[in-house]
Write a structure and sequence with these properties.
The protein is α/β, with parallel strands linked by helices. It is about 45% helix and about 15% strand. Among the domains are: about 75-165, Conserved hypothetical protein from pyrococcus furiosus pfu- 392566-001, ParB domain, CATH 3.90.1530.10; about 165-295, no CATH class.
């Protein structure tokens, strides 16, 4: 049996058709297939472009962080661990009295047990640093280093490092405003600071009263007036006083009033203090109070006590109704004690009996 032949209908292109309309036999529609080498080259290029973009982004972020670090450092807001032996304290005249600080031991113990809660502030000065704020904190660290010898623990102090360039007026204001919150700062310390500020050739103010107004503008008017009064007192007696920071406000104001009324009081105070070189705080305040008219009144003499005299007393017992009564007689007093409740006796009867007793005694 003969097989049936199948016939396929094929559309053949016209003889005059355009080249792109020719029969696409053997061609794959879409993107041409690439070899392994071409794929590897393409992937490498794409990876390089992505890596370049990431690196550019990282560089931009690093540049932004670097600029921010420079800005924060210029503002003194970057904290470093600065070696103690590289810190100087000569640029600013401190508002602390010379000599040992009686309260430094408390700060030392606090830092030893709890650490430093607030870093100091320094300004870069070449290879060294100049202290701006934190004189007592720096002193506490130096005391701990001297006591323990542990340079790893106490040889460096956390410090906010500022770049040089901030004006001296601004640095003084920073120091003053920081210390105005201290409860222990005395009017004498603030007055001495104003004097030293006015005397500093690098500051713009030479008048002490104007220096007080500039430095202590954060304080109230009344407090500034007290500081000005103490500044006058320090002008008169600064070199003669050993314990100026111990002068109470009222005593200082009274001294200023006494001196302004009688200028010779200054010489008298100086003479009295010169004769007492090894004086304590109490000794110095005694001298100042005397010249300020604050001599404490002498204690009133205690009233003389009357001499005690021995009181004459007579005691005896009497029998009555089968009972015994104990009697005691002394000056202005007659006492009868018996095992009986005399409150139950009729009052009229009791009065008549006492009256008869007294009458019989004459």
């Amino acid at each position: 049996m003969a097989k049936k032949r199948r016939v396929f209908e094929i559309d053949m292109p016209a003889p005059d058709a355009a080249p792109d309309e020719t029969f696409p036999a053997g061609k794959v529609e879409g993107r041409a297939r690439r070899g392994p080498m071409a794929s590897a080259i393409t992937e490498t290029a794409e990876s390089a472009r992505a890596r370049t973009a990431v690196e550019a982004q990282i560089r931009a972020e690093n540049d932004a962080l670097a600029h921010e670090h420079v800005r924060l450092r210029a503002e003194g807001r970057v904290v470093d661990l600065v070696p103690l032996d590289l810190i100087d304290t000569t640029k600013l005249v401190r508002d602390r009295s010379p000599g040992p600080d009686p309260e430094l031991a408390e700060l030392v113990e606090s830092i030893r047990t709890m650490g430093l809660s607030n870093p100091i502030r320094v300004e870069r000065a070449g290879e060294r640093y100049e202290l701006i704020q934190g004189f007592r904190r720096l002193g506490a660290y130096r005391a701990l280093l001297a006591e323990t010898g542990d340079a790893d623990a106490w040889g460096g102090i956390p410090a906010a490092v500022a770049e040089p360039g901030e004006g001296l007026d601004s640095l003084y204001r920073r120091m003053v405003d920081e210390n105005l919150v201290r409860k222990d700062i005395s009017f004498a310390e603030m007055a001495l600071l104003a004097q030293d500020y006015a005397a500093d050739p690098e500051t713009h103010e030479m008048d002490v009263d104007k220096a007080v107004a500039h430095l202590f503008r954060s304080a109230g008017y009344q407090k500034r007036s007290y500081i000005r009064a103490f500044a006058r007192l320090m002008h008169w007696l600064r070199r003669d006083l050993r314990h100026p920071t111990a002068i109470p406000r009222s005593l200082g104001l009274n001294l200023v009033a006494a001196i302004e009324e009688t200028p010779e009081v200054v010489g008298r105070i100086q003479g009295d203090l010169a004769e007492w070189p090894e004086r304590s705080v109490a000794d110095e305040l005694t001298v100042l109070r005397r010249h300020a008219g604050e001599d404490p009144p002498a204690p009133a003499a205690a009233p003389a006590k009357k001499p005690r005299t021995a009181r004459a007393r007579t005691s005896f017992e009497v029998a009555h109704g089968g009972q015994r009564a104990k009697c005691t007689a002394s000056a202005g007093r007659l006492e009868i004690r018996a095992d009986r409740d005399f409150s139950t006796v009729d009052r009229q009867k009791l009065e008549a009996g006492i009256e008869a007793l007294l009458r019989s005694l004459g």
